[in-house]
Amino acid sequence: MTAPRIALLGTGLMGAPMTRRLLGAGFAVTVWNRTRSKAEPLAADGAAVADAAADAVRGADVVITMLENGPIVGEVLFGAAGAAAAMTPGAVVLDMSSIPPPTAREHALRLSVLGLRHVDAPVSGGTRGAAEGTLAIMAGGAEETIAELAPVFAPLGRALRVGPSGSGQLAKLANQAIVGITIGAVSEALLLAASGGADPAAVREAIRGGFAESRILAEHGQRMIERDFLPGGQVRVHVKDLDTALAAASDGGVTLPLLSAVRDLFVALRDDGGAAYDHSALLIQLERMSGKRLGPGPDRLPG
Amino acid sequence: MTAPRIALLGTGLMGAPMTRRLLGAGFAVTVWNRTRSKAEPLAADGAAVADAAADAVRGADVVITMLENGPIVGEVLFGAAGAAAAMTPGAVVLDMSSIPPPTAREHALRLSVLGLRHVDAPVSGGTRGAAEGTLAIMAGGAEETIAELAPVFAPLGRALRVGPSGSGQLAKLANQAIVGITIGAVSEALLLAASGGADPAAVREAIRGGFAESRILAEHGQRMIERDFLPGGQVRVHVKDLDTALAAASDGGVTLPLLSAVRDLFVALRDDGGAAYDHSALLIQLERMSGKRLGPGPDRLPG
């Protein structure tokens, strides 16, 4: 296609910086957000701001959705003021929200009935990745559609096709499973070292040279040492992701004992006042269970 | 001290390349190994080869032990042909073996009675790290002794003091806990993705850009995709380490549910024929439990 016209629905913490990256790459972008005031600042960057989702998508070649959850994506696409009905046949819904794989597959099917295409392409990398165009983008859907979207992905990050419809969402769940379990691994290991009299900060530093090294040990491990539990990634949101992952595991017929165990730890932390804590605060849950602390010093907690 | 005279006891897969690194740095090194034939090739590199441990350590400033387990270290130091009695008062036993923290503390105490010093400094990084001098060295003991050993550590890798006697061993257990649990995390995540129809090789590649990235995802994840389970790090050895870690957790009064869960998975794999497999074969255990495979293709297995 020639430079595609883009609509972006959902200009929140992720959608807004992604819009700026697309505008910076020269795309024409029309944005819409349920709370219009969150979309309006993007006009100064060159975006057209629409009053309704249906207005934003009219004439667009690619409609990016970056919304909170599956029901909201469904409502925006297929609800009363539904966007799908206003789209041009042949256009693509590029859903970059994180939603359950079966919901993504259902959206793909409903859109195909309308002559529309669908790619599920959730991301990892957070608001910083969105601002810097360094997101990890996990794309599920038809090969030719994903190939066609390459110029749209380019300013946002690194996109890889991981399989058919729904696979992007599965990859995101795999990502969240690894992140959650690795946070648990680092929490338990540092607590083990401290319980025997070792210095957890020095242990973290010493083992970074070996096979234990990870982004989680580097970043979340440092948060644990500093006891800085301001989010970041909220416990509440991670529980939702892990529950979705366990539902997908059940659908797929696989038994995942570590995922189940870490989910239960996160739920206990959430239900004991930790819903808004950064997910590295899983350490606090393990400390409570053991009656031991990694070290002295106050916790930085939200709210 | 002036350039210390070094004795190295245990010239196995790790001790031999470490000896070569020390000789290359200009140290005088006398080596001993229970099976003498394993020590003899080091003579060509400039090492003196002793017939008995007691002969090797006589006159040495630093006695490095790199042996299989705690009982063997105890036997070599304090047994019938014990080395400790032949050492010069003030000399240092630098135990780089991986043994339980209480055993390391006991050795330190018994050596102090003889006027000898002790540092526990196990390593991570494997035979390649030993050959290249890039080991992660986790040192427990007196600050001034560890500082004094800096020239000895330099050709071997990066050494950090992590606390008092026994802390090096605790750090190694923390390392092994993270490695084991992260192998579990990557196994479960790839199996989850595959069970829903995504391509696990593409998922692994896609998520490497985000918070899920680790040495384990990079190296052991690739082994899982290729189904290459030749060791590497053996399941049998990792079970031993995880059991030692759980004993240390019990001593320290901390509850580590993920470590317990992954230990049970490794034990099941060991007891079902997997003792000599690489630890990345934890995937096979999860596949058996679920009756699903990550992908087709034969397994590369030892023996």
UniProtKB/TrEMBL annotation, chains A, B:
Cross-referenced SUPFAM superfamilies, in alphabetical order? Answer: 6-phosphogluconate dehydrogenase C-terminal domain-like, NAD(P)-binding Rossmann-fold domains
Enzyme Commission number, as recorded: 1.1.-.-
Q: Name one GO molecular function term.
A: oxidoreductase activity
**Key word Oxidoreductase present:** yes
Q: Domain 6-phosphogluconate dehydrogenase NADP-binding, which positions? A: 5-160
Q: Which InterPro entries match?
A: 6-PGluconate_DH-like_C_sf (IPR008927), 6PGD_dom2 (IPR013328), 6PGDH_NADP-bd (IPR006115), HIBADH-like_NADP-bd (IPR029154), HIBADH-related (IPR015815), NAD(P)-bd_dom_sf (IPR036291)
Query: What does the UniProt keyword field contain?
Result: NAD, Oxidoreductase
> Which Gene3D superfamilies does the record associate with it?
N-(1-d-carboxylethyl)-l-norvaline Dehydrogenase, domain 2, NAD(P)-binding Rossmann-like Domain
Query: For the 3-hydroxyisobutyrate dehydrogenase-like NAD-binding domain, which residue ranges apply?
Result: 166-283
**Keyword check for NAD:** yes
Give any Pfam family that matches: NAD_binding_11
Top EC group:
oxidoreductase
Q: What is this protein called?
A: NAD(P)-dependent oxidoreductase
Species whose genome carries this gene: Methylopila henanensis
